[in-house]
## 1
Amino acid sequence: MSDNRTIVTNLKDFAGQQVTLAGWIYQARSSGKVQFIILRDGSGLCQCVVEKGKIPDDLFVKLEHLGQESSLTVTGLVRAEPRSVGGYELAVTSAEIIHPTTDYPITPKEHGIDFLLKQRHLHLRSSRQWCIGKIRHTLIDAIRRFFNDNGFTLVDTPILMAAAGEEEQSLFKVDYFGEPLYLTQTGQLHLECAAASFGRVYCFGPTFRAEKSKTRRHLTEFWMVEPEVAFIDLDGLLRLAENFVSYIVSRVLQDNKQELETLGADIAALENIKPPFYRLTYTQAVEILTGEKTAEFMTQQLAQLNQQKETIEKRIADLEAKQTGQIKQWKRDKNAAELIDLHSRIEELNTKIENNPKHAKLAADFNWGKDLGGSDETIISQMHDKPVFVTHYPKQAKAFYMKTDRANYKVVLNFDMLAPNGFGEIIGGSVREDDYDTLLKRIEEKGLKPANYQWYLDLRKFGSVPHGGFGLGVERTIAWLTGEPHIRQCIAFPRMMDKVYI
Ligand code: 4AD
Ligand code: MG
């Protein structure tokens, strides 16, 4: 190994110099005279060019026989090559094989999502998972930066809880020395105590919900960041949330543009994410859902979906015809990969086409009083190009801790933030009920045991102040930013109701 050991992202500092890279074979092809090895080293990809005659013949042959994901070090001259991945390539002069690999189970050919989830321990090395992981890293760093720079103090709230913070049905029970405890659904209740000590606080950790819904938006274990602020009203919370989301989006755009591009994210749409966001009351949202405009919107959408399907079907027919003719192997492989992608897009479109009339009907028949369903949120968010705040939900549809609007006792001072272009809810938050008697009544109405909430009620006895906060789901935010259809791809090792593979 030469002293000039470096990583792919630093190659730009070594043009014209001899360096050593260590990594895994991502892809390789050989013409017999020259081999092109795409090396993956964790920081990026680099094309390594191995010419026959420039390295010992036996090494040339050994390299030629290495399978995908074999590990090795390669030494060579760095040269700028704009056509190459990353803009630099390595003219190889020597190599050391660390671990030759054969039969790596994940090949560039077709793999269904179930297969890939079972292979998650290996699939993490794929370019998609790598890009998502890098974006997640930036997002989490940006979340902490925002709160740390804005006078918030981090407070770590417990994971084992004696009582529910959200819906009781979604509690995971744990045997705690023979007594039941629950995995936390939210850090909020403890955070409210801390807000009375520090003023502005946040917690950030894993949260757990025994969600029985197998949807693209639900995990049973997900990461949530929750700020909580003393002396704040609903308007202040909305401004905090829009500044926060705008900041984290701008950081991901700044640090991960390339990854967003690789993932096919809508960068122009993300560049548009700046305050102010749209504001609707729940009642206005219901008027939109049941109105003429939504009915028209859904009809138009159905026509567009059918048109997209037709275009893709034509492309499929075209490619399939080409595959039966005489073409080069690499072209055949490329077409095959595109065909897989197109078929999965047809499947997605079919689901959307099938759901469109059902969702249109659900929206048209929506009655004031219910919580917005996933499809209702999707419709509203599809009609907007920036995030939408939906505020003032009916009291009966929401959690016990939300403050009753004193100007309208039927609603609470809460909000959901819906990410735009059809993504749906990424934030839920509210002003908290700060009156002792009203809160006690709400706890009883919800069938919860006041004894479990004595400490929480105490906050309303000793220097109670208007306060509130919200929770942002990390995986949902990543899915929105990256355009990934399912949030299970947005955490390294997902936990879902029916699937925990590794
Ligand atoms: O709307 P939720 O349930 O709000 C709370 O938990 C409040 N206690 C937060 C607060 O005010 N401090 O959840 C907040 C966010 C949702 O908007 C969503 O992004 C995410 O958490 N979330 C989930 N993400 C993935 N899988 C699930 N099962 C989720 N449930 C909620
Ligand atoms: Mg919610």
Note: Residues 416, 425, 428 surround magnesium ion (ligand 2) (CB under 6 Å).
## 2
Amino acid sequence: MGLIVQKFGGTSVANSDKILAAARKAIRAQQQGHQVVMVVSAMGHHTDELVELARQINERPPAREMDMLLATGEQVSVALMAMAIQSLGHRAVSLTGAQIGIRTDSTHTKARIRNITTERMQSLLDQGNIVIAAGFQGIDENFEITTLGRGGSDTTAVALAAVLRANECEIYTDVDGIYTTDPRIVPEARRVERISYDEMLELSSLGAGVMHNRSIEFAKKFGVAIHVRTSLSDSTGTMIVAAPESADQAVCGAAMTKDEARVTLAGVPDVPGMSHEIFSRIAARNITVDMIVQNVGAEGKANISFTVPRDELAVTLEAVESARDTLGEIDISADESVSKVSVVGLGMARQTGIAHRMFDALASEGVNIQMITTSEIKISVLVQRDEAQRALRAVHQAFHLDKAPDVRPLPPVQPAPRPLDVADVVASLRDLNMEQLVINDIQLDESQGRISIAGVPDQPGVAAKLFEQIGEAGIFVDLIIQSHKGRNGQASISFTVPRDQVAAAVEVTNRLAQTYQFTKVTSSPVVAKLTVSGIGLRSHTDVAIRMFRALSELGVNVEMINTSEVRLNVVVAAEQGQRSLAALEAAFADVRV
Ligand code: ADP
Ligand code: ASP
Ligand code: MG
């Protein structure tokens, strides 16, 4: 029958009854003829309690000791789970990350898995044991205990499923599947039958905490079918596989990152290399930066805004401060009271008016959009935190996400067939750095032009109106970026459209310029859009850095940028396109597949 990995999250092992219930599920799977590996999380809120305890003793606890502490949570639950299975008359062995041989790098509290040895697990399985693996933890080359980041047991589970070539990875949790958005925030959210790797990657990295985003990187890379389901019953849940639920659905889900912070640097010299200077220092601290938006201000100075997780703001500001020497007289401001609301969908790229629909929903709720970034498969906006839940709900409604899509082109869910080359990949895993960045495509698109508006008033409804009129004129918008106004500057909006629609887009924009008193509308008849595609582009903090470094060495200015999990888009001047393409090819040569 093959091998199955079953992961039980914190609430699913919160007390002895639940541990026994989980044990029975594993035993049943074994009796059905499977070899069973269980991955378990710390009981209930045990990890939160340990974090809190550490904070009471030390405001900023050393990361190594934090890992030492947090790894104990999973050690408790694996031992209890093994006892539970044995008490029910079956064979089980619990193993820590180190005992399994989950080797990671040394980035304490955010370690990445390098490789996993399978011999010990396989021989225990062959002897008839249920193997119980501690989630979330590993060991580095110096035998130091590491953890994978909060929620990381999902990643342990999918990684084990990959190396053991499991038929399926079941994720047992407190919801009965993946919903169109967090059902705790939006009760009318709908459970989906199936969701694609790319969509789930974006959703989880944009705030859908139901799955650790790096677990989906593994699933996509190694073709692991994931079944997310409830531990409370036997009902089937949601399959995360290669294909989306419906081929012609523009938006499949919405997500919110509640605790986001915005940083704005004003008065940055507008010369190539400045972004590299700033973001390399942040990336060196392993912080994921999102929504990077630049706008050129007066006198050769630019404003750069970006967002980081709120709990990493202090470290981010330290990093930025350390760049002052090079950047000169810059004004640094930050806002901790913001949230990011996003929609995701593979079908977005094929339909017009999606961005407008989102902006319109927000305008109707009177929600002011502080920043915008869009890419082919997601749109993110930054809003004030106390408006975020309302914003999420409005957006969910605007895309009718509570209703099942009409067309279901594919038959009911089956585990995805494994990619053909996966056997080779798995065979060579021991030499491979499993979580390494993978780039499979770099492209140059010279078919678009850009429109930029300076002096966008900071009030609800402007983006909604602008893109409504652009849409009504039959213009297809690709990338949209809205910068933050900063402390006393002005917001700006840039967007790209097909070359032959630039003139029409300028006309529409100029018409609105009077109403909204835009200070300036400029355009480029043609720009170069470069797209780097792969897996883990956002979670590997060095991706943007490689790009900034390569382009700044050429003296190329990045006009627009957007990062998603599977794609990095940058827009540069048209005449720089070919050279930039060559530079990016060189910058990513070592991770090209
Ligand atoms: P576990 O402890 O089992 O790992 P988590 O708390 O990490 O469970 O994840 C489950 C929770 O994720 C759910 O209770 C739900 O509130 C939340 N969640 C957020 N977004 C989604 C979504 N799109 N679909 C389902 N659940 C979601
Ligand atoms: N126990 C860890 C946490 O709470 C890992 C996990 O549950 O996935 O983050
Ligand atoms: Mg979780």
Note: The chain has a mean pLDDT of 92.
